[in-house]
Amino acid sequence: MNIHEIIEAVIAEKSAIKQVYWVACGGSIIDLYPAHCLMQTESLTAESGYYTAREFTTMVPRRLGEQSLVVLCSHSGGTPEVMAAGELACSKGASVIALTNKAGSAIDSAKWLCWVYAWGHEVPTAEIPLGIGLRLAAEVINQQDEYVDYTALQQGLRQIDEIIATDRIKINNEMSEQFAALCKGHPFFYILGSGPTFSQTYGFAICSLMEMQWQHCSYIHTAEYFHGPFECTEPGVFYFLQMSDGAHRDMDQRALDFLQTHTDTLMVLDAKDYGMDAIDVSVRDYLEPAMFYMMNCELRAARGRLFNHDPDIRRYMGKVSY
Fold first, then answer.
1. pTM for the whole structure
2. Is the pLDDT at 1 greater than 90, yes or no?
3. Burial of 220 (0-12, 13-18, 19+ CB in 10 A)
4. Is 106:78 a contact under the CB 8 Å cutoff?
């Protein structure tokens, strides 16, 4: 689909986009967070809201209306909460764009514009929800405010896949087996990150590890680490730090400095060591989550091999009533 033309048509119909709401659940809402961060930081004329779908329908934004754009994502195509959010958005006169991996699913509806994306390690980042969301956000900003880093973001999207391909080899050579072994020795551990990358800190915990590996863990924002959680830091407690190489590096560095002197069990996945310094610093923060996601996939796969636990196995999801 032509994103420029999609946003151009919405603006022409609405005269302006005043709010953009990113609405999904689980792994899908994780993918939309970098776009929300981009909108929040760079847009002069459109506010951005980020909602897990159930809360979008229970705490309905008063501003939701005819000059709103709602971006939905349901990978499976049938998430009930996301469908309800779409119906609500339509009832308020908002424009709706839905993203899904499943053509012909419930969300692939004539009620709104639906984008069916491909999925898999070989699909370009620009063509999966994380990249599509960034492109939509950048287009809204550029058409309404003239986004000064628009070209840099497009270039970064072209660069990121080659960086990731190299990184997948690197992480399996350097970290994967050690990570899996530490999971074996630590039934519970903490994962830290910040900025747009915090979406992958959260995602690594709730999706890759808790959902797909039944691994007990918790996510912590590196800035919030010093407002309580650091009191649990001591030798023998495992911490995994996702370290940014953009505007948020200083807050990650502060956490790293403390961790290096207060625990003896620490792994650091540093974006600078994984080629992200090749991306223009003006947009690096928004693209780092794509790299961290793919590295998380390699790490969970390594854990799965050691524990003989296929990441596709579920106990409850799609199997019991909830």
1. 0.97
2. no
3. buried
4. yes
- Which pLDDT tens digit goes with each residue over 249-297? 999 999 999 999 999 999 999 999 999 999 999 999 999 999 999 999 9
Determine contact, residues 272/245, Cβ cutoff 8 Å: yes
Q: Mutual orientation of helices 129-145 and 281-307 as an angle, nearest 10°?
A: 170
**C-alpha distances out from residue 295 to 146, 270, 298, 310, Å:** 33, 11, 5, 17
Residues comprising the chain, all counted: 322
* 97 conformational bin, left if phi > 0, alpha if psi -120 to 50, beta if neither: beta
Tally the C-alpha atoms within 13 A of residue 105's C-alpha that lie toward its C-beta.
21
Pick from 20, 249, 270: which is nearest to 136 by CA? 20
Distances (CA, A) of 162 to 159, 204, 278, 305: 6, 22, 11, 26
